[in-house]
């Protein structure tokens, strides 16, 4: 899917909030298979930015309201990420849609972590949607990002059975470790050039090795 990069893969992480998934990347792949070269947030003052700063990673904030429209914001953000040398963009709790102005600059190189087993429960409030539906198995998906809402090809998924779940916090607590394992795993796969698209089914990501 991408040409293999010599040495560590330069990655950018987009955030909007707490940043526990960013922390998982900083604690695992950063300085090993990958180098987090930029952290961009849609919101100022969030804990995710502090986590990045603590690791000496350059940070920037791109609030939507400071730009004429989403396209202008995405363009400015993409320019900064490219300047920083990013080859992969990782959405880790980034709470806004991305358009072609950014995705087109990182073709087949933007991934996201989502707290449901897609295609079930895309978009905001995935855990609340799953609870309202009454499911017994919850889970996490890491997928490539396209212009739709959590609709790109799936890279990794993991499930957990929670028969009596009622509380979103309880489900989130159960899903956190899954997210924190799967997102770094997907970055490692990408970094070693192990991901490709099945020519017979463009939705299917093949993992080599
Ligand atoms: C995670 O649950 C992720 O799946 C979703 O947003 C949340 C971000 O959490 N996309 P954090 O900011 O990484 O702690």
Task: Walk me through what this model shows.
There is one protein chain. With 209 residues, the protein is α/β, with parallel strands linked by helices. It is built from six helices and nine strands, in the order βαβαβαβαβαββαββ. The strands form two sheets. Strands 3-2-1-4-5-6-7 form a seven-stranded mixed β-sheet. Strands 8-9 form a two-stranded antiparallel ribbon. Helix 1 packs parallel to helix 6 (168-191). The site of 5-O-phosphono-beta-D-ribofuranosylamine has 13 residues, from helix 1 and strand 5. 5-O-phosphono-beta-D-ribofuranosylamine (GRF) binds next to helix 1 and strand 5.
The end-to-end distance, rounded to whole angstroms, is 14 Å
Fraction of residues in H or I helices: 25-40%
Give the neighbour order of strands across the main sheet.
Answer: 3-2-1-4-5-6-7
Task: Tally the beta strands.
Answer: 9
**Low-pLDDT segments:** none
What would the principal axes of the Cα set say about the shape? globular
What is the rounded Rg? 16 Å
Beta-strand content bin: 25-35%
Main sheet? 7 strands, mixed
Give the count of helical stretches. Answer: 6
Protein topology:
Layout: E1 9-15, H1 20-27, E2 34-41, H2 47-54, E3 59-61, H3 70-83, E4 88-91, H4 100-103, E5 110-114, H5 126-133, E6 137-144, E7 154-161, H6 168-191, E8 195-198, E9 201-207
Parallel strand pairs: 1-2, 1-4, 2-3, 4-5
Antiparallel strand pairs: 5-6, 6-7, 8-9
Helix pairs in contact: 1-6
Residues 17-22, 48, 92-93, 113-115, 179 line the site of 5-O-phosphono-beta-D-ribofuranosylamine.
């Amino acid at each position: 899917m991408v040409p293999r990069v010599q040495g560590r893969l330069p990655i950018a992480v987009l955030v909007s909030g707490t940043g526990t998934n960013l922390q998982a990347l900083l604690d695992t792949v950063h300085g090993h298979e990958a180098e987090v070269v930029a952290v961009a947030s849609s919101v100022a003052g969030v804990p995710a930015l502090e986590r990045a700063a603590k690791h000496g990673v350059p940070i920037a904030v791109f609030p939507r309201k400071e730009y004429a429209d989403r396209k202008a914001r995405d363009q400015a953000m993409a320019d900064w990420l490219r300047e920083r040398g990013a080859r992969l963009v990782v959405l880790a709790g980034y709470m806004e849609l991305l358009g072609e102005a950014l995705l087109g600059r990182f073709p087949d190189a933007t991934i996201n972590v989502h707290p449901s087993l897609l295609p079930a429960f895309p978009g905001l409030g995935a855990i609340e949607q799953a609870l309202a539906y009454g499911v017994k198995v919850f889970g996490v998906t890491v997928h490539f990002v396209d212009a739709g809402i959590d609709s790109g090809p799936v890279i990794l998924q993991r499930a957990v059975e929670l028969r009596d779940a009622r509380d979103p916090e309880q489900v989130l607590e159960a899903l956190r470790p899954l997210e924190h394992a799967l997102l770094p795993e997907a970055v490692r796969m990408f970094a070693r050039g192990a991901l490709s698209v099945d020519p017979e089914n463009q939705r299917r990501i093949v993992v080599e090795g």
